[in-house]
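Input.
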Amino acid sequence: MTVRTRIAPSPTGDPHVGTAYIALFNLAFARQHGGQFLLRIEDTDQSRSTLESEQTIYDSLRWLGLDWDEGPDVGGDKGPYRQSERSAIYAEHTQMLLESGHAFKCYRTAEELDALRAQKQEAGGFSALKFSDLELPADVIAEREAAGAPYVVRMHVPEEGVCTFNDMLRGDIEMDWGMIDCQILMKSDGMPTYHLANVVDDHLMEITHVIRGEEWLSSAPKHQLLYKYFGWDMPVLCHMPLLRNPDKSKLSKRKNPTSILYYKRMGFMPAALLNYLGRMGWSMPDEREQFSRDEMFANFDISRVSLGGPIFDQEKLSWLNSQWIRDLSEEEFVAEFVKWGLNKETLMPAITHIQPRVERFSDVVPLAGFLLSGMPALTEESFVHKSIEKEQMTELLQMGLWQLEAIRNWQKPEIQQRLFALAKIEGVKPKDFLFGFFVAIAGTANSFSVLDSMQIIGPDMSRSRVRHAVDVLGGISKKGMKKLDKKYRDVSAQIEAQLAETQE
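Output.
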């Protein structure tokens, strides 16, 4: 048997370090066994998936030193490797499940589903919806079908009993079927859910080992059942421990930068970041902290993975990166530094803003230094403004951050549209509103256009600097955040309506 593993990211935003973490362990396992590693793009969410995000996934993983044997960009004989190009395959397999009686069309409305869930919660016990809950009388089904009412396809799931499945790291795991609902397999728009597409693709692409995050443990019974319904052998499952923030919570961009692009932009060496990800829950036989990708592959043993949630600590990563930097010769250091920041690709977008403002080349660094730096050195005093108090400044930055996080196409016009719309709704002049963003991004209000600056440094670094500014100002309390979030929902709806009008 040839070992085949895969990674299946969604192209819906900045590439996540968690994706790289899981990709690394899948690749290491495949290489250890002389097998193959695949990359599959899960782009069934067409409203959020973009080709730009897909390309960024390729670029980021390759920058880290992760490569794949089959995928959308390299080909292979088990394609297509984009789920959006496999619709006919999913439709065929959905029909197979309907014909075999293992799935059913569900015409329940959203209101009916809410009422059913409420009834289950009031009754106590498990709240998962079963066929006995969802079943409609035959005449009602016929009426809704004749009216062309929308429906989803759900899988049949046992109403009682226990499901047992095996995990490479945890052994046998038992879950009560009462916890598992009749999972939707095909949405009303004809697109498959993750669960159906994942099982069908893994089987047809001959994946032998599914190494994924432990957040998918609760989905294993559904997947095992689907394999049984199709009459297929299920791949070996291995659920990796989740990456954690220093406070032990699940790694999230709210508390820790999660974008691979952020770490690239901050000047971390790819070998150091990959080294650090390799230490997340795993260790070399000799326990040394610094090792290369190939050294990890040569010594890899998945049984050495620890189930304790590994802590993703930026200070520890910075220390490890410093070890890699110190190991460079002076010539290598210069070459790596130039490749990172002093290259044409990085500098050209800024030149048009810098050149008109310089009298000597020595003026360039003071003007452009913030474009190559990490977090600006800020204090609360940096944000003192004649007409905006500290609390309002913090809230404007936080709501602006939420708007920046909503941007899919990171270009100046959309950044400007969203921030100016927010300023208008909040009754703040654009110049005053942008003051806090100038300081957050450039460290000073005396810089060239902050909108151009954000486009140049990119979404990951821009968002991180605004998040840093909110922290410098003391952040927002839990109570205050709840109140602001409620207010922002209304503000956001207004902005989206304005943007929709402009696009029309």
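DSSP finds 20 helices and nine strands in the chain.
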